[in-house]
Design brief:
Number of strands: 5
Number of domains: 2
Strand content: 5-15%
Largest sheet: 5 strands, antiparallel
Order of helices and strands: EEEEEHHHHHHH
Radius of gyration: 18 Å
Strand order of the largest sheet: 4-3-2-1-5
Number of helices: 7
Helix content: 10-25%
């Protein structure tokens, strides 16, 4: 894995704060020097989700890994197809719960934007280019509930042309 500032990693182990294991973090700095006498944390990453969200911790290389794409393996994920801005992508449950496809998750950004506070309507998915490309005609069934975005929190950005779902470029 080629780590660089801005890359997202998954925390594999971290004895100092076990609650961050399994969370995703964005690399904010890389330490290039090594010291024999001191324990140096070569990777500094900001936690993206959970109780520790926003906090920055130092990690060893063996404590982090590039997150698996789960069911998106060998597919272009929805956040790339829709060119989601980083702020939305990092908060969206489709990015966090990669073991499920976006149309199987309640409260993704696209569902909230078009269908209200709960984000459980699948109407938008049936016309979405991501679903059309990767679903192979399978019926839509939401499998993950209660982990979606908080719609009122995003009400101020929904009107912004740079963040509206309808402003994403077509492919």
């Amino acid at each position: 894995m080629r780590m660089r500032i801005g890359s997202v990693v998954e925390i594999k182990k971290y004895d100092a704060v076990p609650g961050v294991v399994g969370e995703y973090a964005e690399i904010v700095d890389l330490q290039m020097q090594e010291f024999e006498k001191y324990r140096v944390y070569p990777i500094f990453a900001k936690i993206l989700f959970g109780e520790q969200k926003g906090k920055i911790y130092g990690f060893q290389y063996d404590e982090v890994a590039e997150p698996a794409l789960g069911c998106w393996e060998e597919k272009m994920p929805c956040w790339e197809m829709l060119r989601c801005p980083e702020a939305i992508r990092n908060e969206c449950p489709a990015f966090r719960y990669r073991s499920l496809l976006c149309w199987e998750i309640e409260g993704t950004y696209s569902k909230l934007y078009d269908y209200g506070a709960k984000g459980d309507s699948i109407d938008i998915c049936q016309g979405c280019r991501v679903y059309k490309r990767w679903s192979h005609g399978e019926s839509i069934q939401i499998k993950l509930f209660g982990k979606g975005l908080n719609a009122p929190r995003y009400s101020s950005v929904k009107g912004s042309p740079s963040l509206r779902a309808s402003s994403y470029p077509s492919q």
